[in-house]
Structures are given as C-alpha cells and as structure tokens.
Design a protein that fits this description.
about 400 residues; mainly alpha; Growth Hormone, Chain: A
C-alpha cells in the first residue's frame, strides 16, 4: 500500500502538469498531444498481458520493481527530451510501464493476500491511491502557478524520484507465490469467457475519461456552469472515494453481489449522464453548478460500486496459479479506455451534442446488465478451481500480516 501511495503522488502531479508540459515546453500542438497519448496508451494496452505473463515466469515483485524503475526512466527522458522522437519514446515507455504495473501489482496482491480479503485490501489500496493522487495534483497545481519550463522539468524529475522510492518500498515485500510458469504465453487470452468479461469491464471504465477529459470540455464550452465547477467535481470525486470505497467493498463478497454492484453502477452512471445532458439547457450558473455536482455524486456512487464488483469478478474468475496472465488481460481495459476513450467520447458527446449523453448513458446501463449474463456464463464453465483456495505455501502464510500492515 505504501508503494502505491508513493507512486500515486507522482501520478497525480504528472497528470496535472503533463499536457501543459507537452504543449508549452515540448511545443506540441493539441492534436499531436491527443494522437500521441492515444498511441502511447494503445501500446500500453497491447503490452499489459505479455508483461503479466513475464511476471508469472520470473516473479511478480521483480517485474513490478522493474516497471517502477522504467516509469522513472520515462519521466527523466521526458524531462530532458531534446526533440520530438524522445518525447514520443518517453510517453510510450511511461504508458507501457504504468499499464504493465497495474497488472503485476494486482497479480502480486493475489499471491500475497488471502482470497477472502482481496477485495477489501484492494479497496484500501484504492483509497490510498486517491489520497496520493490528490496530494500530487496539489503539487502539480503549484507547478502550474509557477509556470516556468524549469519548474515543469523539476516536477517530472521529482515524479521520477517518487517512482524510484516506490520501487525501494517494493523490495521489502515478499516475492509472491514464487511460481515460475513454463506454460505458453496465450493461456489467458484463449479463455474467451474471461476475455469477454474483461472487454465489458473496459467499456464500463470509460467513466474515467468521461470525468477527466469529456466533462471539463463539455462544461467549459457548452454550459453556463462556473469555471470552478471542474475543480469541484474532482474534489467531490476524491472525497467520495476516500470516504466510502472501503465501506462499499465490504458489501461485495460473492459473485452475485459483484454483478449486482456492476448493474447498479451501470444505472448510476446512466443517470449521471442524463443529468449532465440537462445542464446545457439552463442559463443559470447556480442551477448548472448544482446539476453538475448532483451528476458527479451519482458518478461517484457508480464508480464505487463498479470498482468493488469489478475487482471481485476479476479475482474470482481468474486462474489463481497464474495471476500475472489473467490480471494482465483484465487490467488491460484501463489503458484501452485511456487510449480510445477521449477521442470516442468527445466525438459522441461534443460533436453529436445533446443526444450523445443519452447514448453514453445507455451504453453504461446495457453493459452493466450484459456483464451479469457473461459473468454467470464464465462462472459455470470455469476450467480451473476458483481463487478461494487454501494458502498452503510458506510465502503466502508469511504474507498475510505484511498485506494488512500496508506494504
């Protein structure tokens, strides 16, 4: 947990300053930034499963440490990048390292934490991550206020040091299950049912670019909402996750409860989209602000339920003997959403205008409903025992107090 908190501080600062850095320091045009980030996260999507499979073979902790170091290298390349090629290389390396680390950290959790506590511990980590991102975003905001090239570069170097610190913390963790798989690389992608569940999960995770990319564009150009409302939306989202993620996760202990949580998430996200659609219809800034905050509250409610349900499904349906491969497939939905989400969502909502919110909302609703059917199908035909197996290895027994202690 401490390792991910440290890394999250770096991520928060990075996300706040990065686009400004690319446009003002690296002198990229806005369209170039959009294409570059889509390509980078697309590369991250393609690399996530292979990196997870490597983790199964040579050790999940080792690969996670290497990915933290690779992230630091990417940030240092960006901070000193003399030209466009180096900027592209730094962005792609960052996206691949972060996408892969998302999978190996999740898989490492499977090998260290008792199966009955996975979702609860994951919720605690998510809370710490959001706290770290909030702190990092505040630091990034201070860098933006300074607004000099030197400060922007210093922020990237500082982020690199944080990821190195995260790698150092990871060294103190147990190595995980210790299994070194010699089987083929494509076992998880051949599990069609699990891939289908992961694909639906990726669609649901389009809420991420909805909040970070689409909402600021929509509010600033199509509504009478005051400018501060974007910051208010992010603050409300952060408070919601910090205050209620663990409580929500405790209610999800079975696949049935997980699918109910995902269905509820689809409904809540749909309602949030419909409410945001109505914001453009009012010319009163106070009313618009109230509608936006109400929509974000619904979005947070859906996000909390989706996270808990998604973790439970991803853990329960995976092969417990090869967590790197299976979590690599499941976690690839996040870089996929980051790669295609901004362009797809802005095309649907900003170009198509009002009805686009309806289409997006119905997409969330339908995906939440279909996920229940596909998860039940996958659970009935699971080709290996469920993840709730006794932890018989010495390493797993040793890991339990460490996981609770926040490593």
């Amino acid at each position: 947990m401490r390792a991910q908190f440290v890394a999250a501080v770096g991520e928060g600062c990075f996300y706040v300053t990065f686009v400004v850095y690319l446009t003002q320091v690296s002198h990229l045009r806005t369209a170039q930034v959009g294409v570059l980030l889509s390509l980078a996260w697309g590369a991250g999507f393609l690399a996530t499963h292979p990196i997870g499979a490597v983790g199964d073979r040579i050790g999940l902790r080792r690969v996670t440490i290497l990915l933290s170091m690779a992230t630091a290298v990417a940030l240092l390349v960006l901070a000193s990048a003399p030209g466009f090629l180096f900027v592209c290389s730094g962005c792609v390396l960052y996206a691949i390292a972060q996408s892969g680390a998302g999978a190996t950290r999740q898989a490492l959790l499977v090998s260290l934490v008792p199966s009955t506590e996975l979702v609860t511990v994951r919720a605690g980590i998510q809370t710490a991550v959001n706290a770290g991102i909030g702190i990092g975003a505040a630091a990034g905001g201070m860098a933006l206020l300074a607004g000099t090239h030197t400060v922007y570069r210093a922020a990237l170097v500082g982020n690199a040091m944080l990821f190195i610190g995260s790698a150092v913390v990871l060294i103190g963790l147990p190595s995980g299950s210790g299994t070194r798989m010699r089987t083929g690389w494509g076992d998880a992608p051949r599990d069609i049912r699990y891939v289908a569940v992961a694909a639906l999960n990726a669609v649901m995770y389009l809420y991420m670019p909805t909040l970070s990319v689409l909402l600021p564009l929509y509010l600033s150009s199509r509504t009478a909402a005051p400018r501060w409302i974007v910051a208010g939306a992010f603050l409300l989202n952060t408070i919601g996750v910090l205050g209620w993620q663990r409580r929500t996760a405790r209610r999800v202990t079975t696949l049935g409860e997980a699918t109910r949580a995902i269905r509820f998430a689809g409904l809540a996200l749909c309602a949030a989209c419909l409410l945001l659609w109505t914001v453009a219809a009012t010319t009163d800034s106070a009313v618009a602000a109230g509608l936006v905050l109400a929509a974000v509250a619904l979005q947070v409610t859906g996000e909390l339920r989706l996270a808990a349900g998604s973790w439970s499904v991803g853990f329960t349906l995976a092969d417990p003997a090869r967590p790197g491969q299976w979590q690599g497939v499941y976690q690839s939905g996040i870089p996929f959403a980051r790669a295609v989400g901004p362009a797809a969502l802005t095309a649907v909502v900003m170009v198509w205008s009002g009805p686009g919110w309806l289409v997006l909302g119905l997409t969330f609703l339908a995906t939440g409903l279909v996920t229940t059917l596909v998860v039940n199908w996958a659970a009935r035909h699971r080709p290996f025992p469920p993840i709730a197996l006794p932890r018989q290895t010495a390493c797993a027994t040793e890991a339990r107090p460490r996981a609770r202690g926040g490593d």
